[in-house]
Amino acid sequence: MNKNLLNKEVQDFIDTNFRSDIHTILLGKKLFSAVENREVVEQLESKKKAQKKLPTWFETKNIYYANKLNLSQTSSEICAQYKADLVSGDSLADLTGGFGVDSYYFSKKIDKVFHIEKNREVSEIAKHNFAQIGVSNIEVLYGDGITFLEKNKQILDWIYLDPSRRDQSNKKVFFLEDCEPNVTKHLELLRSKSQNILIKTGPMLDLSMGLEQLDQVFEIHIVSLENEVKEVLWHLKPDFGKAPFLRTINFNKGNTETFQYALYEKENAQAEFSKPLKYLYEPNAAIMKSGAFNLVSERYGLKKLQEHTHLYTSEALLSFPGRVFEIVKTIPYNNKRFKQLGIKKANITTRNFPETVVQIRKKFKLEDGGQNYLFFTKDTKNSLIVISAIAAARIKS
Fold first, then answer.
1. What span, in angstroms and rounded, lies between the C-alpha atoms of 104 and 63?
2. Which residue in 306, 313, 305, 308 sits closest to 278, CA to CA?
């Protein structure tokens, strides 16, 4: 951590130039005697990324940013706030503290938060930034989170972990046993120190595999931001032996979509099927990740187009956690019929279809965008079809 980056003239430069061309700065003459241009560029890149992702940090003076990679692995404020709303009590240990966004939001709901980070520089950065933001109930500790638990005799109200999903070669990993720390190795220790364990995993982890490795799961939360799954949260409670509850949430441009159920509901749900009717429904990414496809049909009174086609249809317009379209026309998939549509520009989605979006665009010389939506999929007879649609007005819940 180069504290010279906090000098007023450097901070003023960062505040006014974070949108500048970083290559010009990187290759230009040295800007400041005690700071390398690459260090300035690192701050500029991270500050620009923070504008949308971390507005509290962006708007606070004298923030010291971690590098772009570290910041990309950091929770957004929206996701951190969601996690904080799950916890309460006197004490919480964030065993993988990182840049400190989650710890900061936990500190709004917990009396005392321990931020433990084994990267010394990142630990120092978090401590500095907490002081700038004005939070005083976070104790920043440099060291290994698991070691902290082993040495600490205190029983905590909550333990939180966000295991690193990169190996020693900086390549992405997806399985729990490949992450650092490997939570599957330390479950007994975690359960001996708290009745509430919250583990964040990446969106690529298979839910059935997570349930198998993380037994005593009380709740699973799938958190999506603008229809992209950002994190999966596993709330473990020792001695909990019932079916877990699953909650999905999609924060989407001022509109929050939720869908929740007990796991046994998903397993017992039965879907009805139909040809495309007047309206078409596409679940948001969080629901798609949950795999509750038959339950969506049952819960909303919608009919599926085909067993493996996770699109739904109805005659009447209904409120729905996802995208809703009004069907203009449905045709069999062949060149002659498609050309009769006369569409040259469209947004394309494929579901349970043998060709990719790229192949379809090339085949029919289709430009991207516009008001037309084309769904390439299969119907109840397993035939390939194309659904031409336009966005339907949203019904407020």
1. 14
2. 313
- Count of structural domains within the chain: 3
Among the candidates 71, 95, 114, a domain finishes at 71
Does residue 223 belong to any structural domain of this protein? yes
Burial 35-74 (b: 16+ CB within 10 A, else e): bebebbbbbbbbbbbbeebbeebbeeeebbbbbeebbeeb
Check whether residue 181 and residue 142 sit in a common domain. yes
Q: Which domain holds residue 341?
A: 269-391
Are 63 and 94 found together in one domain? Answer: no
The residue count for the chain = 397
93 and 132 assigned to the same domain: yes
Cα distances (angstroms) measured from residue 86 to each of 101, 106, 158, 193: 15, 9, 10, 18
Establish if 298 belongs to a structural domain: yes
- Residue 183: CB atoms within 10 A of its CB come to 23
First CA to last CA across the chain, in angstroms? 49
- Does 277 share its domain with 177? no
Q: Are residues 132 and 37 in the same domain?
A: no
Instruction: Mark whether 206 and 283 lie in a shared domain.
Output: no
Is 124 found in the same domain as 64?
no
Residue 141 lies in a domain: yes
Q: What is the pLDDT along the chain (397 residues), one digit of tens a residue?
A: 899 999 999 999 999 999 888 899 988 899 989 999 999 999 999 999 999 999 999 999 999 999 888 888 899 999 999 999 999 999 999 999 999 999 999 999 999 999 999 999 999 999 999 999 999 999 999 999 999 999 999 999 999 999 987 766 667 777 888 888 989 999 999 999 999 999 999 898 899 999 999 989 999 999 999 999 999 999 999 888 788 999 999 998 878 999 999 999 999 999 999 999 999 999 999 999 999 999 999 999 999 999 999 999 999 999 999 999 999 999 999 999 999 999 999 999 999 999 999 999 999 999 999 999 999 999 999 999 999 999 997 665 4
| Domain shared by 58 and 90, yes or no | no
Q: SS3 of 37, please?
A: helix
Residue appearing with tokens 């790229």: 358
Looking at the whole model, is its pTM more than 0.85? yes
Which residue, 356, 335, 334, 348, is CA-closest to 388? 348
